[in-house]
Design a protein that fits this description.
Helix content is 31%, strand content 29%. It is of the alpha+beta class. The chain has a single domain, classed as Translation Initiation Factor IF3 (2-Layer Sandwich). The strands form two sheets. Strands 1-4-3-5 form a four-stranded mixed beta sheet.
Length: 264
C-alpha cells in the first residue's frame, strides 16, 4: 500500500522493468505519436508512464446561509489530496531517474459520502544531454503542457519548472425571498462578488506556488470550476498552469521560413 508517499511494491516492480539500466528496459507512455515525435525532437526520451493517487475523505463544511465565505477546510482538503497525488507521481519519476514529467493529467472522481479518488498521470522523460532540468527543490519538473506545447516552449528558450495550482471552495449566499423576486432581470451582486472573490483566491495561490519555484511566469493557465457534489451554492475554483524559467538570456527564436508552392 502507498503510505506517506511510499511507492507500493507492485509499482516498484513495474518501474524496475522500465529503468534504463534494467536488463530489458521497456518504456510506456500515453503520449500520442505526434507528441512522442516532438518530445524526442526536443531532446528528451520517454522513460515510462508514472502516476500517483490519493483516496481522500473530503467531507463537508457548514456555512452561514446568507453569507458569502470561503470554506477553508474544504479548500485545504481539495488542495492536499491533489498534492499527495502529484508528489507520489514525482516519486515514481525519481525511481526512473527522470528529469521531468510531461502531459500531466490531474483527475478527480467523486464517490459516495464525500469520498474522492484523486489521480495524477504523466510520462516521465529524461534529457539526452545533461542539464539543469529539475526544479529548485531538486524534484523532476512537472508540466500539463502537451508534447507539442512542450516542444514549442523549449524552442522559445524556456523550460518548465512545475505544475502550480491554487484552489478555493466557496459558499455563495442564498437570496431571501424578496431579493429573489426583485432580481427577475439584472445582475445578482452576491453571486458576482462570490465568484470573483473565489477566482481571485485560486489565482493568487497558484501564483504563490510559482514564486516559491522562482518562476518567471506561468503558461497554459486554466481556471476550472469542476462539478462536485456540494450543491448549487458551493463551488470550487481550481487554477492550474505550468511555471516556467528562461534557459538563457541570449536565446533567439528562429523565424519560420515561407515555402512557396512550385509553379507548373
Amino acid at each position: 500500500m502507498t503510505v506517506h508517499g511510499a511507492i507500493p511494491d507492485n509499482a516498484m516492480r513495474r518501474l524496475r522493468h522500465m529503468r534504463p539500466d534494467s536488463a530489458t528496459p521497456l518504456y510506456t507512455s500515453d503520449l500520442s505519436v505526434n507528441e512522442f515525435l516532438l518530445v524526442r525532437e526536443a531532446g528528451f526520451r520517454p522513460l515510462g508512464l508514472v502516476m500517483g493517487t490519493s483516496i481522500y475523505q473530503v467531507g463537508f463544511q457548514l456555512a452561514r446561509w446568507g453569507r458569502n465565505q470561503e470554506l477553508g477546510m474544504l479548500s485545504w482538503a481539495m488542495y492536499h489530496a491533489r498534492e499527495l497525488a502529484m508528489t507520489r507521481m514525482q516519486a515514481e519519476a525519481d525511481v526512473l531517474g527522470a528529469d521531468g514529467i510531461v502531459a500531466v493529467r490531474l483527475n478527480i472522481t467523486f464517490r459516495a459520502a464525500g469520498l474522492a479518488d484523486f489521480i495524477a498521470v504523466g510520462t516521465a522523460v529524461k534529457a539526452d544531454q545533461p542539464g539543469n532540468w529539475r526544479n529548485n527543490a531538486g524534484k523532476p519538473f512537472t508540466s500539463d503542457l502537451s508534447g507539442q506545447d512542450f516542444w514549442t516552449l523549449l524552442q522559445a528558450g524556456h523550460a518548465p519548472l512545475g505544475m502550480v495550482m491554487g484552489t478555493c471552495v466557496y459558499h455563495i449566499a442564498h437570496q431571501r425571498f424578496w431579493q429573489a423576486m426583485r432580481a427577475q432581470i439584472g445582475e445578482i451582486p452576491q453571486f458576482t462578488e462570490a465568484l470573483y472573490d473565489a477566482r481571485e483566491l485560486a489565482m493568487a495561490r497558484m501564483q504563490a506556488e510559482a514564486q516559491q519555484l522562482q518562476a518567471e511566469g506561468i503558461v497554459g493557465v486554466k481556471l476550472l470550476a469542476p462539478p462536485h457534489y456540494w450543491g448549487d451554492h458551493i463551488t470550487e475554483f481550481f487554477a492550474v498552469g505550468t511555471a516556467v524559467k528562461s534557459l538563457r538570456n541570449d536565446h533567439s527564436i528562429a523565424k519560420p521560413q515561407l515555402v512557396l508552392p512550385l509553379m507548373g
